[in-house]
Amino acid sequence: MHILVVHNRYSSAQPSGENKVVDQEVELLREGGHRVEVFERRSDDIAARSLLGKAAVPLLVPWNPAVRAELAARLRTERPDVVHVHNVFPLLSPAVLAACADAGVPAVATLHNYTQVCPPGTLQRDGRPCTECVGATPLPAVRHGCYRGSRLATVPLAVSLSVNRRRWWSGVERFFCISAAQRDVLVRAGMPPERLAVKHNFVPEPGVRRAGAGEHLLYLGRLAEAKGVRLLMAAWDEIAASGGVGVPLVVAGAGPLEPEVTAWAAGRDDVRYVGLYDAAQCRQAIARSVAVVAPSTWLEAFGLVVVEAMAAGVPAVAAGHGAFVELVEDGVTGLLHRPGEAASLAARIRRIAAGPARNQEMGQAARRRYEQGFSPAVGLERLVEGYRTAIAVRSGGGDSPPPVGNTNAGSRRGTRASRDGGSR
Is 322 within 8 Å of 300 (Cβ atoms)? Predict the structure, then answer.
């Protein structure tokens, strides 16, 4: 297949699981023999804009006409089989969907969060779950300043959600939900269920697995309230007050709570804050873990670090809501704690660190779960299946994908001719 991937890259100053997923899928498809090209913008480039250019960025969030024209021209020239849309905020905008319609190319989109029903995409406000905008207008998000604590910053996202809702729902042949939990939320919000397919993110083979019992507990991710960082600090203080668990807590990542985490970890023997790890350091740190801790207070749409731990044969301690409930089988591949409760998190950390033999069994079960559901082979199969279904739907073939491996040149030309003759 010929695939064009569309993505607005998040800032490189902070870890982005979404950037990682996009890069890994592009590499996976290319290794599978597919032709993949990328149409992207980078949030890092905003800093180099003029003062006027920076001021204009919020106006581009709901609609960027220049992107529509540029992408449509590229699609007409290159004629990919399918466009795969990821993040469009803030520089691309939903204008990419209009470009696909202009050129008659089918589009699929991965929903990495909840921006289809919640302006900031977190379904959270003030550290607690919130669904006030789900199935309704996004005015509450503006009133509460849900994006970065700012009403002004929230307005472009709320406007985009309002004016582009139907464009998303009609302009995308297939949405990839990254968990069944996410899909359930979106269906309840009114998104067309026939267009929503569950396609978990895959994780590449790490090249290293845990040997032995592990030497630390690990938090690996963005240092933000929604990720449960403050909850973890409170739980760890409770553990430390009762004598600890015999291994330190390693915190790796960057984000708005970095100064707070740095001050909390300073001078302690039981906590090490190590900053932002590169990919190789992440793999090594996971493989040396007793367990990976994922205490998110928001409803995670997936939970990449949990599956990365599975790949390395390491169990997880995760919040018992959102996607974690389907990723972690409680007591088998890891442990689930009551969301938002420091005492419950502390109890699960103590339990997973107290029984080395049982911990090893959980790690082995986690690895088997990875092989069955999150390996590259599984990821490639699900991606290609979704693409073929989108192409079939757009060309009038209903929900049945064309036969896998059909690369007959005449057949491909016929499919394109059918798309070219279609209308929006």
Answer: yes
28's CB contacts (< 8 A; 6+ apart) are 202, 204, 376, 379, 380, 383
User: Which CATH architecture describes the domain 2-202+377-407?
Assistant: 3-Layer(aba) Sandwich (3.40)
Q: Which fold does the domain 216-373 belong to in CATH?
A: Rossmann fold (3.40.50)
pLDDT at 5 over 50: yes
Instruction: State pLDDT tens for residues 35-74.
Output: 999 999 999 999 999 999 999 999 999 999 999 999 999 9
Q: Tell me the backbone φ, ψ of residue 247, rounded to 5 degrees.
A: -135, 155
> In the beta sheet, which residues pair with residue 343?
none
pLDDT digits (tens, 9 = 90+) for 326-335: 999 999 999 9
Q: Which residues belong to CATH 3.40.50.2000 in the chain?
A: 2-202+377-407, 216-373
- Residue pair 18/86 in contact by the 8 Å Cβ criterion: yes
d(CA 58, CA 236): 40
